[in-house]
Amino acid sequence: MVAGAVGLMAANVLSLRLAIMQGGVSAVWPATGVAIWVLIRLGPRMWPLVAGSVLVAQIGFSDFTWQTLVWLAAGATLEALAGVWLWRAVRGRWSGAAGEAASCLAAALVAPLASATVGSAAVAAVTDLSMPWLWPIWWAGNAIGALAVLPVLLAGPELAGLIRTATGRETARAALVLAAAAGVSWLSFALAGGGAFLFAILPVLLLAMMWFGVPGVRLLALLIAAAAVAAELAGRAYSRTEVRMATC
Questions:
Q1: What angle, 0 to 180 degrees and rounded to 10, lies between the N-to-C axes of helices 2-18 and 31-42?
Q2: Where would I find the beta strands (DSSP E) of 22-138?
Q3: 3-state SS of the chain: helix, strand, coil percent to 5?
Q4: Contact 26, 141 (CB under 8 A)
Q5: In total, how many domains does the chain have?
Q6: Is this prediction's pTM over 0.90?
Q7: Residues in a beta bridge with 25
């Protein structure tokens, strides 16, 4: 439980660092994926961890009143609870890789409707921003965050098994894939106009899929997305649009 609380707090702080305006509107919101995963692992009864982490993180990053902060926390909590319910419902209907993919997609695309609706309404009520303008940005950022983070966290045990049993040949392949991903990430995110290199990410992901399967490509995709986020935080990314494309 302590690890879950720490993870949620770190995810919310990182997400708020990426926000383009107060309240939590961002091109990518990793906290959504972390919150859904924590409740999948610990159970829906742990929802106070989600609400508390949002409240504490928002206090340090916004000037909203307590009433608005409570609404933001409520929206995030509803989102996480809906994500858990959707993930379990879909996972119970389909097995195998198809069920795994469908459950993550359902949770990532549908659950953010709750946070986007409650959050954009709360922020629109106390600012000059309109809810119709805020809502799609809010939903997209949370959905992208869930799509990038949730599958990797769910594959954590399988990834750990791959690492423990890796042979020398597999370790060399992993080093090659990581080096290629680092090079492509540098070209895409650290250079002005690097968007022209974004399509080079696809062959690297395909190579990871061929050598390490679904868990490996998930982890690599998350690392590339993290590189894009780091570039934006450092002010070296060409544009928010490119970061968003890469995170997708």
A1: 170
A2: none
A3: 85, 0, 15
A4: yes
A5: 2
A6: no
A7: 21
